Amino acid sequence: MQSLDAFAGEKLTALDAKSLRRRLKPTRRHDGAIVERDGKRLISFSCNDYLGLSHHPAVRAAAAEAALNYGAGAAASRLVTGDHPLLSDLEKRLARLKGTEAACVFGSGYLANTGVIPTLVGPGDAIFVDALAHACIWAGAQLSGAKIVKFAHNDVADLARLLEAERPGVRHALVATDGVFSMDGDIAPLDQLSALCERHDAWLLSDDAHGVGVLAGGRGSGALFPDAKIPLQMGTLSKALGSYGGYLCGSQAVIDLLKTRARTLVYATGLPPASAAAALASLDIIQTNPAFTEQPLAKARLFTRRLGLPDAHSPIVPVVLGEADAALAASAALEGQGFLVVAIRPPTVPEGTARLRVAFSAEHADADVLRLADAIAVLRKAAA
Ligand SMILES: *Cc1c(COP(=O)(O)O)cnc(C)c1O
């Protein structure tokens, strides 16, 4: 198919010209936040394994034991034969952690959002989405067929104005946001969003992919706002929990509806038992070691203080450099000094805000955090 290859080739050339082409780089991950690329060992500040639990001996043993006992895969949709009992154990634990009646586990966080949102809203409804919300929230919104209304990032007044204008014309309204923003590390004003949602009979969905396990003693960003009512608490098992999979915590009625209607649950293979077992082992560690869960944020604050940046709110700190090639050059310079800090470019982040996204882990030594901060200070001075 000449036209097909010509199409792909032209797309790639155009991306190359803008420094926006991406390439896979085979990477081995070791414990201690060490990664290996091209035979070179680097200290990674780009993994979302905030507690190092993907390599924790108890978590690995739980995954290995489940794989040996129950097999490597789930073999079918959860509604057929793929609903291993470990999945309901995990759902009970997640619901307890989040203080909800029930929970539903999905194959990934991406599958959770793209399954949950279209189950709850559709044509004739509206979904209000924070401008910087994660790509899978936008994908879920598009799949739903509901009217999509974008509100300015963390801007409660903008959302209030849009709800006043749009809410009366639709049947149901959903407000969707990241709890911790994946590329900026800031936190949604969930208390104010919750109050607005109550006033307008809108349903609040918070995506806590980067909060669970590392904020509020591991309970996540929602727990930072005791008065917030968040009926839809989504998250992932793939980051601080060191495993794979996604979840939604909510009321029994909502969870029952998802389990019969969410297309990414009905028509996709269930989560492998080993992933559930690993997540359960991680939850044991998180819930019995609240001080350990505060480590990533403490390292992030050490970094922001050294650089004179505003205090970090989460383990994610953006160092915005502007153009894509500037971010790539900075990343390459840091790699030369033994650090892996991957450059993040559009369309993952808005045009003109390419950046280093620095993610901190309990496994980082303070001395390495300070060394990285000093290396970045030198790069920023050179760029200014
Ligand atoms: C990573 C991420 C997801 C997707 O979760 P996966 O389990 O990796 O599919 C969803 N939302 C946010 C905010 C994320 O950062």
Task: Note down, in words, how this protein is organized.
The protein has 14 helices and 14 strands. The relative contact order is 0.16. Helix 13 packs across helix 14 (366-383). Helix 7 links the parallel strand 7 and strand 8. The chain has two domains: 24-54 and 292-383, Aspartate Aminotransferase, domain 1, CATH 3.90.1150.10; 57-288, 3-Layer(aba) Sandwich (Aspartate Aminotransferase, domain 2). The N and C termini lie far apart (48 Å). By secondary structure, it is of the alpha/beta class. The chain is globular and about 55 Å long.
Overall spatial form: globular
* Share in helix: 40-55%
**Ranges with pLDDT <50 over ≥5 residues?**
none
In the CATH scheme, what's the topology name of the largest domain? Answer: Aspartate Aminotransferase, domain 2
Question: Strand order across the biggest sheet?
Answer: 4-10-9-8-7-5-6
- Counting H and I runs of at least 4 residues, what is the number of helices? 14
Give the bound compounds.
pyridoxal-5'-phosphate
How far apart lie the N and C ends?
Answer: 48 Å
How many strands? Answer: 14
Largest sheet: 7 strands, mixed
**CATH hierarchy, class of the largest domain:** Alpha Beta
| Quaternary structure of the protein | single chain
List SSEs in N-to-C order. Answer: HEEEHHEHEHEHEHEEEHHHHHEHEEEH
CATH architecture of the largest domain: 3-Layer(aba) Sandwich
Q: What is the strand content?
A: 15-25%
Secondary structure class reads alpha/beta
Our count of domains comes out at 2
Radius of gyration: 21 Å
CATH superfamily of the largest domain: Type I PLP-dependent aspartate aminotransferase-like (Major domain)
